[in-house]
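Exercise: predict the structure of this protein bound to 2-oxoglutaric acid.
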Amino acid sequence: MSVTPVQLPFAWASGSIDPTPSAAPGAGAPPRELVPGAWVLPAFATGVAPVLVEELERVFAAAPLRHMTTPGGHRMSVAMSNCGPLGWVTDRAGYRYTARDPESDRPWPVLPARFRELATAAAARAGYEAFHPNACLINEYAPGARMTLHQDRNEGDFTAPIVSVSLGLPATFLFGGLERSDRPLRLSLEHGDVVVWGGPARLRFHGILPLRDGEHPALGRRRVNLTFRLVR
Ligand SMILES: O=C(O)CCC(=O)C(=O)O
Ligand SMILES: [Mn+2]
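Solution:
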């Protein structure tokens, strides 16, 4: 797959955010193909991160972070919320997407335009044109929180890629194969890094090792990850 630069048909800066060129996505080292169909875009979201953090505060005010329960009855170490038409949830009844926040019975907060634009631009940079997600899962990792190896497979169809944006403390991302037992690659993801996987890589197992403690200048003692998906 070749990587071609994308034209960005939108403005990144508005409101209280300084309209500097660095606020546009796409800065950083060139994209790196991890395995066929999976790309790391180093620092792709660094410039727009202050806007993302501002928007996140609004989302958390409407749909607070919470620790969900797995179908097996375990409390997840990662705290979660969602924005967009559909939100991923888990409880004793299973994993699924819902249009309403089960805690409030209100629709999930709208997907901020900046989130949508970032996801579409990152997917295009990795060769996936016209990605228009309708779900954004927000994961908050405190020190020690982790996500065990899993596949993203509750979306109904797997033709669209996954776009995953890292903010805050660095984390070790595990990127495995199509079998749980395949030995995963390990890579460090830093504030502003974006990973995109689709096509032959769409169902690869992946996860996050327990977060190491630290202090991030913008986000404090935590890592926040945005996972954009198209659910059908
Ligand atoms: O936090 C991450 O980088 C990965 C999150 C993830 O895989 C998920 O939410 O399904
Ligand atoms: Mn996942």
